[in-house]
Design brief:
Length: 270
Amino acid sequence: MKLLENSGFEAINSLLTIETGDCKIIGRIESYSCKMAGDDKQMFKQFCQEGQPHVLEALSPPQSSGISPNKLSQSLDDGEGPLSDKCSRKTLFYLIATLNESFRPDYDFSRTKGHDFSKEPSVNWVFNAVNSSLSAAAGEVYSHLQPQLWEALDKEISLAECDIYSYNPDLDSDPYGEEGNLWSFNYFFYNKRLKRIVFFTCRSVSLFMAPRDSGIGTELDLELDEGSYEEEEEGNMDEERFDRQMTANKSCGSSVFASGGPTAKSNIAV
C-alpha cells in the first residue's frame, strides 16, 4: 500500500483537530493505492497461505440498526451466527495493509481477522453517521468543514462506486483503546476500479482523562508546573528576605543595647 499525496486531504486534516472545551477531536483522511510492491507482495504471499485470495471471509454486522431482523434471522439459521456480509480475502488484505500503513510503526494488525470488520449499508448511512458524531462534538466548527470534507472525498474516491468497510476491534486490539477515549470510527472507502482506498479515522478524547502519552493536556500540565515553580521561587525569596531581616534586627539590637541603654530606659519612662 502506498500513501498518495493529496493536498485537499492535507488541508482538511489540519482542520480535523478541534478542541471543544471538554474534549478534543483528532481525525485524518488518507488515500492509498492498492497496487502491491515490495513488502506488500511478500506479506500477501504469507497471507494467502491461510486461504486463497478469492475465498470469502465472513464479516461482523455493522454496529448500527442497519441490519434487518430478517437478515439477522437468516444468518443465524444458516449457522453463521450474526455475520451479515462477506468479502474476499484479497479485499481483507487491503484493509489490514491500510491499517498497518496508517498506524505504523506503533501497531501491527497482521493478526486481524474478518470479524473485526464490517461492511456498511450505504454511502448515505456512513455520511449520516460521520456527520452526526462530528456535529454533536464540534458543532459549528464542523458544519463549516463538512461540505469541503465530503467534496474532497468524492473527488478522490468516487463515493458512488465505493464499498465501505469499518474497523471495529475489541478493546485489546483498538489503537484508540486507551483511557479517556470517548468514541472513534475507522472507515475504508474502497473503489475496486481505481484500485484505491481512502481511510478516514477519527476519535474524540476527553481533556480531563487524557493519558500522559497522548500529548493532550500537556499545556495544562506545563501551566501547573510553571505555577508550582513560581510558588517555589516566591517561597525561596521570602525565606531570603526573612533571613536578611533577622540579621539586620540582630545587628540593630546589639548596637542599641550596647551604646544606648539609657535611651531605651528613658523611652520606657516617657
